[in-house]
Amino acid sequence: MTAEFLSANHAAATAAALAGRANASARGFGGGVYPITPQSECIELLCKMDFTGPDGRSRGEIVRVESEHSAMAVCIGMAQAGVRTFTASSSNGLAYMTENVFAAAMYRLPIVMMAVNRTLGPPWNIWVDHGDTLMLRDSGWMQFYCEDNQEVLDTILFTYRLAEDRRVLLPALVCQDAFVLSHTMMMTEVPELEQVERFLPLLDLPHRLTHEPVTVGGMDFPHETEIHRHQHAAAMAAVPAVYRECQDAFEECFGRRPADAVEPYRMDDADTVIVSMGTMASTVRAVIDAARERGEKVGALRVRMFRPFPDAELTDLLAGAKRVAVLDRDISLGKGGVLWSELRGAEPRDCLVQNYVIGLGGGDVRPHDIQNLLDDLRGRDEVSAPRLMEVAP
Amino acid sequence: MVESMEFRFHGRGGQGGVTCAKIVAAAYASLGKSVQTFGDYAAERSGAPVRAYTRVADQPIVNRNKVYEPHHIVVLDHHLLGAAVFAGVRGGGTVLINTPEPAEVYATQHPELTIGTVDATAIARKHGIGSRTVVIVNTTIAGAFARLHGLSLDLLRETYERLGFLSNFDAAREAFEAVVVRPVLGAARSAPAHDGRPAAALPPVEALTEHVVSAPTGLQTGTWGTQRPQYLEKLAPCNAFCPAGNDVVEFIQSLHNDQTGQAATILGRTTPLAGVCGRVCPAPCMEGCNRREYDGSVNIRGLERWVADTTAVAWAKPTPDPKPERIAIVGGGPAGLSAAYQLARAGHRPAIFDGEAELGGVLRTGIPAYRLPRDVLDAEISGIVDLGVDVHCGAFLDRDALAKLSDDYDAVILATGLQKLRDIEAPGNDLRGIEQGIAFLHRQNMQGGVHTSGHVVVLGGGNTAMDCARTALRAGAERVTVAYRRTRKEMPAIPEEIDEALQEGVVLLERVAPAGFTGSGDVDGIDLAEVEMGPPDDSGRRRPVVTDRIVHLDCDYVLLALGQSADTSLLPETWELRGEQLFRRDDTPLNVFAAGDLATGDGTVTHALGSGRRAAGLALRALGHDVQVFERPDRRTAVPATDIRVDHFARRKPEHGTTLSSDDRLHHFDEVHAGLLDSGEAHRCFSCGHCTRCDTCLVYCPEGIIRREAPGYEVDYTYCKGCGICVEECPRRAMEMIES
Asked: For residue A262, what are the contacts with CB-CB under 8 A and spacing of at least 6?
């Protein structure tokens, strides 16, 4: 384990390469890639990586294609052949890729994709907004939202083990905030290949292609679709238990424990709770610390795993809450924040849940912005429609 | 060191500001500090203002916000300095600036700050980092940073080695040594101690509001452009090539916009003979036309005729000049008419003298009616005379009369043309039936009813030869042969005239020269010697070399069209023609100016028009009037065809209008050409160098900062980076990049 000074984009590429090399003695590593700001740094580094095996033969192939749609198509083909696959995208690139994003999940392929959250255009905006990956909420992929550089690297490794587990066999989307995380450099612990090999078993896809030609993804009749969806839903349902096993394994191999699906902060006796995702959670913690110093009973929850949605964990953690602020760096137009609408129902009876849509399009959400909404929440007797907050430029 | 420090870096895309922040963070990381560094990006490219931030702390860093209240700032380009750069800087902090200016300049403005200056650009350039024009200063200024913040050179070297920048370390060391700090490092500060509050007020935090949209901060991306586009009206080749100085491109663009009246007005500034030129001009403008090699020149001559034929010639009565001059013009041909027109338009009273019974000169005596109908000529001459011109026809002036004219008038313009006809020195040249073509045409044009028969041979290759040949056919000749000593390619006649003559049945014999005539009394044959083409002469045409190989041709009539020259023997003995003005033998200038073929010998209507206009200006200027004398523009400055974006233009052949069939037209002198049916040909004009407000610049501007603003466009230079795409894409090069 060495500490390296890396951007989170490079941390993701480094993790993917490690996972890939760890599969060298099986069917190797690969993926189709297509650049898009702010993700390009990741695949640029990946394209420079060497995957030559000890026998001098290539054990990895990164294919540069002409579009995101094809990038995912390459991943699908490789994954069906049993290759450990990776790609990365963002924003409108994901929108263009979407058809094959669904296909990857329906094929039950354990592809890992890193997505840098970026505002969907037009008009064009390259900064952070969670709307792009939340658009893929129903695609059948697992979704994780990271808070810092180390978590990006760790989650790439973590999700390979989770995705490839035979009880799961689902693709995983590892999300990070544009620039705030993707381009920010911090010291990052990079594990040795041997550690990764210990953590990640070789990929042995049960339904991988063999020398016998078959048609995949042909035709489903209603009763077959019902069965496929049932299986898919069951796999999602199996995730939390496998997740906890992976946490244990990860801690054993690397000496640090990945955060829970929902990460609590100073939740003991908290009657007021702020729920958020991504890097905003760091800013929220600073506000919680200040409020606690004033003697206020406040706490925070960070939703790290968005799919499958951690209903049970949230219900447990919010049991004592009286007021909950849900921060959304996204908006489902015509409804409100996506996290907020997902979370509704997990709160206890007589709990006030207010949605704050904040930091859209990459606005820098600062401590006083969080404090503003905390003040707003405290003054509320009843819930209103989601509030759109503007942050100072 | 304080528990935590925040740095803000201000640079431009391409200078490496983000990497500079990374170097600083990496250096502090080596000291065991927690570090964080990130750039603040926009969708901007090279040259855009870019910020980067570095946090250094003893504790783990969890702050994910940008840096709003930096302890220290680093400015990689001093042109960025302004309120935005200093915003939020904490008192007692440091500002490191890449600038050739001394530190004192900034230290007095910001007494609460420590200022460091270093000319990192010069140092980096000296060490060859980046290119000579785009110098990458990040690794250099980081050396100055180390000095300012007490980081050792050893630490810096180790950092550079780790990051792969070791080759730039010498530049960093030089900056380390060169940085100037005010107040000097370690000196006691008089400024108030840092109280942790920002030095400059931050914008107030917006209230919790619904549906409020904050405008994004605009990056003034125009500030780093070194060039900028400018709309320019440039010389179109048609204008450059027109000897009359017509504003061809503008009159055609008026037609393009269906403004025929405006087209007539534009032509009227330079020519009173649009109907004439629209028929008989050799149209040098069409030789210059940039469309020529693409799909054929715009039929400018046809369009000029269309304007004349569809708009009534009725010039507005001129306002008299406060000091009207009496100017005599000798010669009523196109040069004299042009001079008279310009003088009358300017409010003077010219008098025109001509030996013929009517004005028009060679237009009337030389050019047959099937090319130039007399009603067209008469109408345009009337238009000129009606402006206020005294006409004295049938007045052939001898030497004495000319000298008297000079005394009686304020000025005299001589436009007597080419009176001396070239004869032929060959045996038998005195036989009957050998006639000068000019005299032949004069007879037909002035009296009519000329009859020819049998085989007519015309000697020569110019327009007179073609006119003779075609007139002879119409006058009854059974066949007509034109014998020319060079090849068709070298014939000075208008190519269309040659084509039409051949269509009508004229036979062309190339590379023959007359060696003698046969016959007793009347000519009955001609001996033609074969000519070989020798090396080119001064005009670029190959010099003909006459051989002794003779062919004999039976013929009944011979017309000589071998060229004309000025007859200076008609001038008073004490006068001498020197270019455009006449002088006495004792070098004193006369009030006499020459115009048309007498001055230039160019031999075309359009040259005569330009020359007459110029002579009018010269005469007025000599009389003390502040007038602009017409000058031919320099053709070399015209927009070249390579500047035209032909991709913007669909290929379309020129319109030629309708023509009488060659069988039909031989029986009379009716006009052969009916002219264009409409002015649609104007739509083919590229409008070289003249903006047509086609919106291409606006559409292609990647920044979207060109907008329509009468009469053309306006570029928002605040955001124009000077990429030059608008200029490159302009279909007609009505824009250029200029240094900003």
From this structure: A301, A302, A303, A304, A305, A310, A313, A314, A317
**Per-residue model confidence as pLDDT tens digits over A91-101:** 999 999 999 99
Does residue A330 surpass a pLDDT of 70? yes
Name which of A186, A286, A387 is nearest B36 (Cβ-Cβ): A186
Q: Which residue of B has its CA nearest to A185?
A: B37
Closest partner CB to B212 (pick from A180, A187, A390): A390
Question: Out of A179, A282, A389, whose CB is closest to B63?
Answer: A282
State how far the Cα of A105 lies from the Cα of A119, in Å rounded to an integer.
24
Q: Which residue of A has its CA nearest to B66?
A: A364
Asked whether B513 and B546 are in contact (CB, 8 A), the reply is: yes
HSE-up (13 A, CA, CB side) for residue B552: 7
Cross-chain CB nearest to A183 (options B29, B41, B212): B41
Cβ contacts below 8 Å, chain A against chain B, sum to: 86
On the 0-12 / 13-18 / 19+ scale of CB atoms within 10 A, B273 is: buried
What Å distances lie between residue B473 and B87, B457, B555, B659, B662, CA to CA?
92, 11, 14, 18, 11
Measured in angstroms, the CA of A295 and the nearest CA of chain B are apart by 22
Q: Is the CB of B210 less than 8 angstroms away from the CB of A364? A: no
The answer to whether B118 and B126 are in contact (CB under 8 A) is no
Which of A176, A184, A374 best probes binding to B when mutated, by most B CB atoms within 10 angstroms?
A184
Rg (CA), chain B: 40
CATH topology for B427-565 is FAD/NAD(P)-binding domain (3.50.50)
Residue A156 parent element (H or E):
helix A149-164
Cβ <8 Å between B22 and A280: no
Residue ranges per domain, chain A?
A: 2-254, 262-388
Helices (H), B557-604: 597-600
Q: pLDDT tier at B218 (50, 70, 90 boundaries)?
A: low
**CA atoms of A281 and A327, how far apart (whole Å):** 9
Query: What is the distance between the alpha carbons of residues B100 and B122, in angstroms, rounded to a whole number?
Result: 8
Please spell the DSSP secondary structure of A68-105, one letter per residue.
HHHHHHHHHHHHHTT-EEEEEEEHHHHHHHHHHHHHHH
Residue A81: how many CB atoms within 10 A of its CB? Answer: 15
Do A185 and B29 count as a contact with CB atoms less than 8 A apart?
A: no
Using the beta-carbon criterion (under 8 Å), do B41 and A38 form an inter-chain contact? yes
CA triple A154-A158-A160, angle to 5 deg = 125
Strand B455-459 to strand B479-483: parallel, antiparallel, or no bridges (unpaired)? parallel
Angle CA(A120)–CA(A125)–CA(A127) in degrees, nearest 5? 95
- Determine if the peptide bond prior to B102 is cis (ω within 30°): no
- Within 8 A of B41 by CB-CB distance, chain A residues are 38, 126, 179, 183
| d(C-alpha B405, C-alpha B250), whole Å | 40
CATH, domain B224-234+689-739, list 3.40.50.150, 3.40.50.720, 3.40.50.1390, 3.30.70.20: 3.30.70.20
Strands B4-12 and B72-75: parallel
Please tell me the least confidently modeled range out of B372-376, B430-434, B657-661. B657-661
CATH architecture of B326-419+566-622: 3-Layer(bba) Sandwich (3.50)
Instruction: Order across the sheet with A84-90: list the strands.
Output: A60-64, A29-33, A84-90, A112-117, A172-177, A142-145, A305-307
For A168-185, what is each residue's pLDDT tens digit?
Answer: 999 999 999 999 999 999
Q: Which residues of A touch B66 (CB under 8 A)?
A: 364
Please name the member of B37, B64, B206 whose beta carbon is closest to the beta carbon of A185.
B37
Answer whether CATH 3.40.50.920 is correct for domain A262-388.
yes
The pLDDT of A131-143, averaged and rounded, is 98
Q: HSE (CB half, 13 Å, CA atoms) of B276?
A: 29
Contact A5 B63 (CB under 8 A): no
